[in-house]
Every structure is written in structure tokens, then in C-alpha cells.
Design goal:
alpha/beta, 11-stranded mixed β-sheet, DNA-binding transcription factor activity, transcription regulation, HTH-type_LysR_regulators, two-stranded antiparallel ribbon, D-Maltodextrin-Binding Protein, domain 2, 13 strands, 314 residues, Arc Repressor Mutant, subunit A, WH-like_DNA-bd_sf, rod-shaped, 11 helices
């Protein structure tokens, strides 16, 4: 038995007015259409709801009892629909992003600020984690998109490069005096380099750059967190090797010097999405904000942060 809510609303409206022409006008429909809908409802229920004469329309006893039930059904339907719409509204403001910590720190605050101007009380979850974890969260449908620094080879993913950043050296104390503003990769041999762990993309980029020269990259120390690296550099224990975006939060620390690696690697920064997924409106807005932030960074830090490679999307 299939009785749509609209048919019940017609029945209730007629039960109150007891006038086919007035009810049809109220519901913006023709009187024959209303009459047919009521006859169809009576056939579906298997009993008459109205007694019709040439002069009047009256509810039957069964019609009176069913009208009370119909009001309850419609009331519950409307309340449930309102709850569903409210929940849908909340879902429409949900956003989850996976990002490398260095990208989350520099890029996502401005992205979230832009979203808060467009959406009332958005609920944003950011997972700052390794590149592999970012991609896995995306594949597991735990996030709407990811900010990653290596193009994934998984066929289910799309990769859109938004910018590239160069690797730099960060020094302090006596090491600052020994390093010039511009070095070559070959100049790094013998220096007490501090980098991130093997799980990081930064380490992979540096290892690949040295491997192209037939040299194994063997830093003095490897640490998980950029903030910890900054502490060791400040203590004079070594020289950090980081992508420029990863170094940016440390620029406010006093006594630190940034040196260019002229022939060093260049890191790719990209928006990664699921190939078959349709992004929500808030996710599309967030990705547009990421692109805008990227353009601003390229303008403000020209030479250190570079435009995406032409046509780099897969």
C-alpha cells in the first residue's frame, strides 16, 4: 500500500473544508484532480471517507477516525522531515581535510577563515599526518580531499598540483656565520644536517637528489617534528634541511638564517581527490581557497615558492 503524504494532505484539507472547489483552489489544483485523488485514496484504503450529495460533503464515521490518524501521520512526517533537513544542513557544513603538517600550518588557517565567511558555523576536521596517511585517509573516504607533496600512483585518485616549493637550509649560531646565502648540493657534504625521518616526503626528495649524484644522503639527525628541528638548530646542533613551506613558521624565531640550495630539489604540493567522488559544495569552496592561498604565497615568496608545472594534473 502506497499513500504519498500529498494525498493525505488533500484528504485532511477536504475533511476540514468539506468543499471540493474551495479545497482544490487552496491546493492549486483542479477539482477533477482532487476528486480523483480522493477516490484513489478510498480505493487504496478499501472504505469510503466522504458522503457526497449534490449539496453537501460529509465525512463518514470511518473518515472521521482516519482523519485523526492522518493528522498524526502527517505531523510525524513533517517533524521527521524537519529533522532530516536539519541534519542535512549540518552535513553540508562538514569538511574533513588530510594534510602534511607543514602545509596545514601555512595554508589551512587562511582556508578555514575563508570558509567561515561563507558558511554559518562550519565543522572542519583537519588530520595533519604523513603523506602516506593522508592518501590512505582519502582512499578510506575519511576526508574530502588531501594536501600532499608527492603524486600518488593509485588509479582511484586525482592529483592537481597547486604550487612547488624549494628546499632550504636553516642555520643558527656559529653555523650561520659559516654558511652563505646560496649553496650547491655538493656544498652540503660534511655538514651536520638535520632532516625529517625516512617516512617524510622531505627526506625522500633529498635522498633522491643525492642519489642522482651517486651519493647516499646520510643526515646527522632525523626528527619527526619541525618544531623539534628548530630547537636543535637553535642549540647549534646542526643545520636543518627543509622545504620552504615547512620552514616558514620558524621565520619569526630570532637568530635563524635561511640559505638557498641553488640546485636542490623542488617539492610538489597538490590537492588530491578521489577520481569518482563528487565534492560537496563546502569541499569545492575549500579547494578553491587552497588555490587562492597558493597564488598568494607564490606572489609573496616569489623565487622560493614556484608556480605549478604547466598541465600537471592526473
Amino acid at each position: 500500500m502506497n499513500i504519498p503524504p500529498r494525498q493525505l494532505r488533500m484528504f485532511l484539507a477536504l475533511s476540514e473544508s468539506l468543499n471540493f472547489s474551495k479545497t482544490a483552489e487552496q491546493l492549486f489544483m483542479t477539482q477533477p484532480s482532487l476528486s480523483k485523488a480522493i477516490r484513489d485514496l478510498e480505493q487504496t484504503l478499501g472504505l469510503p471517507l466522504f458522503e457526497r450529495t449534490t449539496r453537501s460533503v460529509q465525512l463518514t464515521a470511518g473518515g472521521q477516525r482516519l482523519a485523526a490518524m492522518a493528522r498524526s501521520v502527517i505531523g510525524e512526517y513533517d517533524a521527521g522531515l524537519q529533522r532530516m533537513l536539519s541534519s542535512a544542513g549540518q552535513e553540508a557544513r562538514q569538511l574533513a581535510i588530510a594534510s602534511l603538517p607543514s602545509l596545514a600550518t601555512v595554508m589551512l588557517p587562511a582556508v578555514c577563515t575563508a570558509l567561515e565567511r561563507e558558511y554559518p558555523e562550519p565543522h572542519i576536521t583537519i588530520h595533519d599526518c604523513s603523506n602516506g596517511a593522508c592518501v590512505q585517509r582519502l582512499l578510506d573516504c575519511q576526508v574530502d580531499f588531501a594536501l600532499a607533496s608527492v603524486a600518488p600512483s593509485h588509479p582511484a585518485l586525482l592529483y592537481e598540483e597547486v604550487l612547488r616549493d624549494r628546499f632550504v637550509l636553516l642555520s643558527c649560531g656559529p653555523w650561520r656565520k659559516r654558511l652563505g646565502p646560496r649553496l650547491q648540493l655538493d656544498d652540503l657534504s660534511g655538514l651536520p644536517l638535520i632532516t625529517m625521518t625516512d617516512a617524510s616526503t622531505a627526506m625522500r626528495y633529498m635522498s633522491a637528489a643525492f642519489l642522482q649524484r651517486g651519493i647516499e644522503f646520510r643526515p646527522k639527525m632525523q626528527l619527526d617534528q619541525v618544531g623539534t628541528i628548530a630547537g636543535f638548530v637553535k642549540a647549534g646542533l646542526g643545520i636543518a634541511v627543509l622545504p620552504y613551506l615547512g620552514m616558514m613558521p620558524m621565520q619569526t624565531l630570532r637568530g635563524l638564517q635561511v640559505s638557498e640550495i641553488a640546485d636542490g630539489p623542488v617539492r610538489s604540493v597538490s590537492i588530491v581527490t578521489r577520481r569518482l567522488a563528487t565534492p560537496t559544495a563546502i569541499a569545492q569552496q575549500a579547494m578553491a581557497a587552497v588555490r587562492a592561498v597558493g597564488v598568494g604565497l607564490m606572489e609573496k615568496h616569489a623565487g622560493w615558492i614556484l608556480p605549478p608545472t604547466a598541465g600537471r594534473q592526473s
